[in-house]
C-alpha cells in the first residue's frame, strides 16, 4: 500500500472528573487526511484545506507527530501529507489531536502496522506538546484507540481503553470563540487542596466503575469537576445556564469539553441528547455568538480508513 485516506475523529477530554487522564472519541465529527509514501525521506505537507495552518513540518502538529514516528522507525523513504480540516482550532474537541493521531496511525498502516495503536500514542503526544505546551494524552489516546480512554499513568505511559456503554450519547455545543489550551492551562492553580483531590479521585474511580457496570446513575453522580471548571467556566459565555438547562432536561452530566470553549453534555439515550441539543441552541441563539451543535455516540474505533 502506498497511499491511504483516513478519518481523524474529534474527541472530548477531561469529562469533568478526569482532568488530563479521561477522554472519549466522537463519531462522525473529524478531519480527513491523505498520506502518500514517496522516495524522499521525511514528511512533507503538500496541502491544507479548511484551516490556516503552517505547511512547514516542524511547525505543524501532524508534521511534528509524524516526524517523531519516522525518526523512531529510521526508514529509507518518506511521506507526503494532505490535511483537510473540519474541526476548528481552539474549539475544545481535539482539533490538534485529530491531526497528530491521524498521521501516526496512517503511516503505521501504510507500513503494515509495525507498532500497536497504544505504542503510537507517545508519538502523537509530541504534536500535542507543540500545540499546547504540555504532554497530555487525554485527546490523542481516544482519537487513536476509540471508546473511552483512561491514562492510568504518564511515566511510563499506560492507557486503558474502555468500550462505551451502548446508550451513551454526547451533545456538544461549540461557540465560535477561541480558547487556547495553553492559556486555559495557565489560569489553573498549580496545587489543589487535599479535600478537592479527594472529591476528584472519588468521582474518577466511580465514573470508571459506572462505565464497566453500565450504572448510569453512578456515572451521573461522578460527572463533577472541582479542579478545572471553577477557573475555566468564566472563559465560556453562558456556561452556567447551559449546564443547568442540560441537567434539568435529563443529561447525566455537563461540563467543559477539554479546555473549552465547547461544552459537552452526556445523556442516556439519543432522545435526551437531542432535546438537550435543542435547549442549548435556544440559549446560544440569544447570545448572538455563532455556534455548532452536534449529537454523537461514542465511537469505539478511533482513526478510521476511508
Ligand atoms: N486535558 C487538557 C486540558 C485537554 O484540559 O488542558 C486539552 O485539550
Structure description:
The protein folds into two domains: 3-161, 2-Layer Sandwich (Ribosomal Protein S5, domain 2), CATH 3.30.230.10; 168-297, Alpha-Beta Plaits (2-Layer Sandwich). The chain has ten helices and eleven strands. Helix 1 packs across helix 3 (117-132), helix 2 packs antiparallel against helix 3 and helix 6 packs antiparallel against helix 7. The strands form two sheets. Strands 1, 2, 3, 4, 5, 6 and 11 form a seven-stranded mixed beta sheet that branches. Strands 8-9-7-10 form a four-stranded antiparallel beta sheet, sandwiched between helices. The two termini are 14 Å apart. The chain has helices at 61-73, 95-110, 117-132, 140-145, 181-186, 194-213, 216-222, 229-232, 239-248, 270-285, and strands spanning 3-13, 22-38, 42-49, 78-84, 148-154, 157-162, 168-175, 253-256, 263-268, 291-297, 304-305. By secondary structure, the chain is α+β, with helices and mostly antiparallel strands. The mean pLDDT is 97. The protein is globular and about 60 Å long. It binds L-homoserine.
Amino acid at each position: 500500500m502506498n497511499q491511504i485516506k483516513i478519518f481523524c475523529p474529534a474527541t472530548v477530554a477531561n469529562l469533568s472528573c478526569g482532568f488530563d487522564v479521561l477522554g472519549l472519541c466522537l463519531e462522525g465529527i473529524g478531519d480527513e487526511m491523505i498520506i502518500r509514501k514517496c522516495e524522499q525521506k521525511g514528511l512533507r505537507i503538500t496541502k491544507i484545506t479548511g484551516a490556516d495552518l503552517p505547511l512547514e513540518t516542524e511547525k505543524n502538529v501532524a508534521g511534528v507527530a509524524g516526524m517523531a514516528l519516522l525518526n523512531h522507525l529510521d526508514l529509507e523513504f518518506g511521506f507526503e501529507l494532505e490535511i483537510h480540516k473540519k474541526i476548528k482550532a481552539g474549539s475544545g474537541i481535539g482539533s490538534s489531536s485529530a491531526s497528530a493521531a491521524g498521521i501516526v496511525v496512517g503511516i503505521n498502516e501504510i507500513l503494515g502496522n509495525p507498532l500497536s495503536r497504544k505504542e503510537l500514542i507517545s508519538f502523537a503526544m509530541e504534536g500535542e506538546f507543540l500545540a499546547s505546551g504540555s504532554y497530555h494524552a487525554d485527546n490523542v489516546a481516544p482519537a487513536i484507540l476509540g471508546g473511552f480512554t483512561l491514562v492510568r499513568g504518564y511515566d511510563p505511559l499506560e492507557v486503558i481503553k474502555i468500550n462505551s456503554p451502548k446508550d451513551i450519547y454526547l451533545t456538544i455545543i461549540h461557540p465560535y470563540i477561541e480558547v487556547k489550551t495553553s492559556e486555559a492551562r495557565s489560569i489553573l492553580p498549580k496545587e489543589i487542596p487535599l479535600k478537592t483531590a479527594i472529591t476528584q479521585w472519588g468521582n474518577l474511580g466511580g465514573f470508571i466503575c459506572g462505565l464497566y457496570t453500565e450504572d448510569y446513575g453512578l456515572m451521573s453522580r461522578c460527572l463533577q469537576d472541582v479542579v478545572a471548571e471553577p477557573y475555566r467556566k468564566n472563559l465560556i459565555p453562558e456556561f452556567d445556564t447551559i449546564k443547568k438547562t442540560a441537567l434539568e432536561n435529563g443529561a447525566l452530566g455537563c461540563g467543559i469539553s477539554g479546555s473549552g470553549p465547547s461544552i459537552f453534555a452526556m445523556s442516556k439515550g439519543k432522545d435526551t441528547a437531542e432535546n438537550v441539543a435543542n435547549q442549548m441552541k435556544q440559549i446560544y441563539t440569544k447570545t448572538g455568538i455563532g455556534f455548532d451543535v452536534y449529537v454523537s455516540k461514542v465511537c469505539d474505533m478511533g482513526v478510521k480508513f476511508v
